[in-house]
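Input for the complex:
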Amino acid sequence: MHGKKITAAVVAGLLGLGLAACGQGAGSTSTQKPADGGRGPLTFASGKFEAEATQKIVDTWNAAHPNEKVTSVLLPESADEQRRKLIQNAQTKSDAFDVLLIDAVWTGEFAANRWADELTGPRFDVAGFLPPSVETGKYRGKLYAMPLFTGTGLLYYREDLVKQPPKTWDEMKKICAEVLPKQKGMSCYGGQFDKYEGLTVNFAEAVNSAGGQFPEVSSESAKQAARFLADGFTSGMIPKEAVTYKEEEGRVAFQEGKLLFYRNWAYMYEAANKTDGSSKVAGKFDVAPIPGLNGPGAGTLGGNNLALSAFSKHKETAKDFIAFVTSAEQEKAFALINSTPMARASLYEDPELIKKYPYLPALKEGILAAKPRPSAVKYGDVTAAIQESAYAIVSGTKPVDQALAEMQSALGPLLK
Amino acid sequence: MIRTRQNLLGWGMVSPTLVVLALVVFYPLVAAMRESFYTSGQTLDADGFVVEGERFAGAANYAGVLGERFLNATFNTTLFTVVTVAMEVVLGVAMALVMHRAFRGRAFLRASILVPWAVPTAVSGLMWKWIFQADGVANAILGTQILWTADGVWAKLAVIVADVWKTSPFVGLLVLAGLQIIPAEVYEAARVDGASAWQRFWRITLPLVKPALLVAVLFRLMDALRVFDLPYVLIGPRKASVETLSGLIWDEATRVHYGPASAYGTALFVYIAVIAFVFVKLLGADLLSDVRARKKESRDAAA
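Predicted:
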């Protein structure tokens, strides 16, 4: 009997432990200055994908601040795991991390739970940043995370087959009707339609590109956006396997020449241009801002920002470090090593960087037109509700009107 | 006097074990059950900050237990458990019989049968995902264009196939251990008496291997009822066709709904405990069956 009791207890127990930790509700954060003036060494919870560039910046800082050295700790690769790790730390009030790299959509949750401190003062001047990316760092109008990375969806298209990239969905369909009959095994358009965060991104992009707006998803524009996706799947404009696509599955399909148009983030530009034989379309594609219903579309904003942990013991140093990392000089040094798009506007005009990343002008245009995902303290619930109905729309299991009505009633109380 | 002292000594010596058990087993269990009656972090104050502290919620967190999503997850969990355990028992016994035979290359065969069990579940999930993707091996071999990893009935099948592939060797291994202690004389005697191969399997092998087999089935039941990783990696979270109870609990906990997560966790615990109890009562799976019982059985069977 013991064996399985333990087994079962562990299931319940793992939960229990996590809960016990968070159960002891937080007291108010202490505001008084510690004896060391809030200065001292720091730990920076950073991303794996940008590890090399981050380390370079950290090394530069450490060389200039021998008494306030920063250690970079890499968070897990998947966004869900990153969030879980940061939340666990916050719930135990751990000072293990001082500066946090948080996803653009977590700002509300971290601010409202008092896990991150508001960033005020001249160190956090956001004038030089792309305005949409600054918005992602704000909660109720106050800045809680300093913009660092940004980005939005780009339309990758086959330059060898398409003369002029489409500005609207109808133009895109027209180009497909001309080009596809001569291409074997090629579909018109692809995006990320598996049931995960990418679906929220793609669905929000369609709604915003049709002139709709969250949370009013039963509006006529939102319906047209949903029909663009639903009809796309039934007519074969979007291949039916796209319902299993995340970024990488679709990238592979595009690289194999199975897609004429594909929506993805900027990171794919480098990968699809590799000339080691992994990509059949190297040198044969270009990028453009995504199309919309009646004109250029509005992409969904991605990105990561820097937040100050409310439980840090060295907040003054941490604020200096955040300002340092997001300075124009360091963001450029970062961009020269890593292709993740940065939030500073000046970098999109920098000739050296444009030479390295030819897509920057198109990306800037996209970011300026882009819209953030609905901001909410319980973003997890919001995105789950969007995915639930959007997945029914793309997989054709529910009529568009019904799915949107359900999404509307689920989002209503969450986004009020 | 001596007796009391010995008693005290005895308690003294087992107490570390009891303390560890209390800490590792009972504390988390009680903490989770307590949490299932509380709610926290679900309301905002006027300035947009989360209201701190927790408040008693009564049975509100358990409301979802009657909801469509929980019932669907219960159905999926039960279906996966029944189907996979049944298939694994059949395949596992077959594997054990093959592994038990003496022939050249037996060691190699044993090792290769055990490979799936040695692969971490998350890794095997990724591997099967690659097999089952739209332009993957499965569709190429079958000549089909099924979207196995999309939400739907095919996803159920994909999970079952991957799970059976992975855990049949486990059943095989335990059954093999059971086979190895059946004395050869028993078979000899049966052969002398003119029993056919089928009779020998049905009347001797199966009854004698039963204790080991029941342990294997019980372990697999416990495992299958709390399956999480395979559907999560292979198909993805929050897909109704493969969402299991553990998957549902994980999802609620990730979205910081600790109250409902604990309530579902408690419900799953009760479910598993009931199944285990019924299994032990009905099939008399005497987990502490010792050599005595086994010797007696083998004597009976031989007689």
